[in-house]
Amino acid sequence: MPRADGATLLSIYVGVTLLVPARLVISGVSMSITPATLLGVGLGLLWFCTQLVSTLGAAKGRNAARTALFVFLVSQLATYGYATRNYLPPDELNSADRTLVLIIGVAVAGLVACDGVRGLPRVELVLRTIVVGVTAVSVVGILQFALDLDLTQYLVLPGLHPVTEDGFVLERAEFRRPAATTGHPIEFGVVCAVGMPLAAHYAFTARDKGLPAKRWWLCLAVISVGAMVSLSRSAMLGLALAALVLLLGWPTRRRIQALVVGFAFLMVMRFLVPGLMGTLYGLFAGIGEDSSIVARTDDYAVAGLEIAQHPVLGRGLGTYLPDKYGPLDNQYLGTLVQNGIAGLVALLGLFVAGAYAALRARSMTADPHLRDLALTLVASLSVLALGAATFDLLAFSMATGLTFLLTGLAGAMLRAMRAEQVAAGIDPPTLRVALHRLVRRGAP
To answer: Which GO terms describe its cellular component (predicted)?
Structure first.
């Protein structure tokens, strides 16, 4: 039996993040800390200890994803120090303290992924765990949608208590909008959209290798249904962008197969859930008259005033309280308000560094399955990058956790590819050469 390592611990972290309902927090702690946050901070302490010695197998040295995670953490600490140097109202100070702990918890988990997951098989272990976890979340959401059966009420574990009384099963048109174990139906849809490229990768890869593929096709089907019944624009837009990334990188044969499978899936959904496709179409056809869209743009004027007052470091992480100042349903705008230009650059750097690390790893191999895995990471990260423009992503624990985790795993894949090349006596390509290869190769 293999010894537990960073991938094992991260797999447990993924399970806790996805399966424990987001509204459950640890009892007796005033800051409303979730089990996933506590576990993330614990992983961070382990990561720090591994960096002090050279005998525990943790990677060291520069890495694009690692640098981006560090820069993001430094930007958050700088904003916190800037905001708390003077008086803050008690509610804003408490929120700033809690938000900083939450951000540290997810960011250090990303560092553990980048430095503690050694080798491509261990990277894939964590990614497969994410697929299985998102499938389980989708099952909970589908039951909420179809039967009004909320399994999250049975997932209240000892030592935890809910911070809200409801399970966030909302309504749109004549349908229920499930949230499953997430904090909101929008987050549920985005989490499903993140999982779909990963499930598709393992379904196609298993088939190509002659391995049992039915379980991965089942995961893909369940996650796809979950994304559809979320009735979320953010999910649909994220799926469209992920599909575009994959279709650009996939070989022609797989493109055709994917389009056929996708069309058949939509026809089945139209038959099984009458009116669902029309409702999804109406989300975009009537977007100009949607009150929720108008409400989101109404906040821009107030946000502009805040940005003008604190342009560099923002007014303070977690200090722009929705019930006090109004919601900001755009993470990039919210980051600019709360963390300033420095924070916005750091947030964008996360997505860019994650995509770069995956594409750099892709350029280092001719193996079609590894190239597809790297492309899949880019597709999943693109869902989150777009989602940050359509809702306040960092206010939701599962979407936030996946953002940092996938960025760290992209960095871990790049480390693994470099290690394989060094072991084979091949000098890893320079940045200039790698970019040149990416441009010339295009699709595999």
So the answer is: membrane
